[in-house]
Amino acid sequence: MNAFLPFTRPSIDEETIAGVAEVLRSGWITSGPQVKTFESKLSEYFGGRPVRAFNSGTCTMEIALRIAGIGAGDEVITTPLSWVATSNVILEVGARPVFVDIDPVTRNIDLDRIEDAITPKTRAIIPVDLAGLPVDRDRLYTIADKHKLRVIEDAAQSLGSRWKDRRIGSFGDLVSFSFHPNKNLTTIEGGCLVLNTDAEAKLAEQYRLQGVVRTGFDGMDVEVLGGKFNLTDVAARVGLGQLQHLESFNAKRLALAQTYFERLQKPVERELGAWLPVLDFQQSNWHMFQVVLPEPRMKVRRAAIMEQLNAAGIGSGVHYPPIHLFSLYRKQGWKPGDFPHAEYVGRNILTLPLFPQMTLADLSRVCETFIAILRANCHQ
Ligand SMILES: *Cc1c(COP(=O)(O)O)cnc(C)c1O
Questions:
Q1: Residues with CB under 6 A from ligand 1
Q2: 55, 58, 182, 231: residue to mutate for ligand 1 pocket, most atoms within 8 A of CB
Q3: Distance of CA 225 to CAs 64, 75, 204, 213, 371, Å?
């Protein structure tokens, strides 16, 4: 019997574990020199733009909204198919999310529909690069510039992805990344925000820690209402260890994704009518490999497929149920039928295992098992 294969798992090397032990023994474990070093390495990675680190990839977006001055009475355009953090932060600052349906091919916000959703109250767009596949940045910024909107890129999943050879985060407006354990780089919990100017970075530091500004030996003032969002040095040390492997992690993901296509295109896509991801081997960081199950042909629902995979020792995931159908959002007026593409994909999308330490033998086992389960549960 094979060991259970999760849909993802972090890779932490021994050098990083030893480095963490060193930080723990150093006498300084919360935000300090490791965070500073981590931020400067990230800044290098993003072509020299200002970067600040935080304790999640959620607060990064909330802070980005605050830096952009967005609050009560404002509207922010985003996708209904994302981790709920993407729109929760809009509510958190007192603004209103305006969802725009996805393009079922890319599974990202449908750029053709954005302009229809713009009103005089619209202040920003939050696009999401689902599974690491970048939203078309040329079209996105053309729309944003034309309507004078800020862009807060939710790039939580697209660290190392590119748009036409430019790294996501190395250009654009405010760009937010998450370092949750499921992401391509982890600090256990954490995230970072790429900013435009040193003034924005200063403001980010204030929002990160109670709004505090210190001067001289004993000066302290509070100018804005900040929270408690600082990253610890222990977490930053994990991130520094991870950063050295990011390119090789992503290369491994790409190779596995290519093999998934080779194995699944004929039996799953052509023969059973499931949808595979967009075949993007130049730009995506392959954060996830997601199949949209062929609902019209299925004798069972997705949960039964997941249960059978689980019984065969294979983990799978759902990323994501559409946000507008959660109770909190329904109470504010959204309802089934509002965004048909996001609803269909949200009902049928399934994340298969993909992570750097996964072997070709693991992948073969996933494909054989998945094909057999799908064949048994579909009308041919
Ligand atoms: C992970 C994720 C977030 C939030 O990141 P946390 O670090 O868990 O707060 C936001 N948006 C998307 C699309 C994500 O995948």
A1: 56-58, 82-83, 85-86, 128, 154, 156-157, 178, 180, 191
A2: 58
A3: 14, 22, 11, 12, 53
Measured CA to CA, the distance from residue 12 to residue 213 in angstroms comes to 35
Give the count of beta carbons closer than 10 Å to the beta carbon of residue 337: 7
* pLDDT band at residue 2 using 50, 70 and 90 as cut-offs: confident
Q: What is the pLDDT of residues 208-226, one digit of tens each?
A: 999 999 999 999 999 999 9
| Catalytic residue ranges | 183
Q: Assess whether pLDDT exceeds 90 at residue 333.
A: yes
Give mean pLDDT, residues 76-92: 98
Segment 349-374, tens digit of pLDDT:
999 999 999 999 999 999 999 999 99
Indicate whether this model's pTM tops 0.90: yes
pLDDT score, position 380: 81
- Ligand 1 centroid – CA 178 distance (Å): 5
Candidates 106, 79, 112, 78; CA nearest to 292 is: 106
DSSP string across 262-294: HHHIIIIIITT-PBPPP--SSS---S-EEEE--
Q: How far apart are CA 349 and CA 302, in angstroms?
A: 8
Closest CA to 185 of 156, 163, 165: 156
CA distance 335 to 250: 38
Instruction: Tell me which residue has its CA closest to atom 7 in ligand 1.
Output: 57
166: three-class secondary structure by DSSP: strand
Tell me the average pLDDT across 219-235: 97
Q: Rounded to whole angstroms, what are the CA distances from 167 to 155, 284, 306, 356? A: 11, 10, 34, 20
Domains of the chain: 14-243 (3.40.640.10), 246-376 (3.90.1150.10)
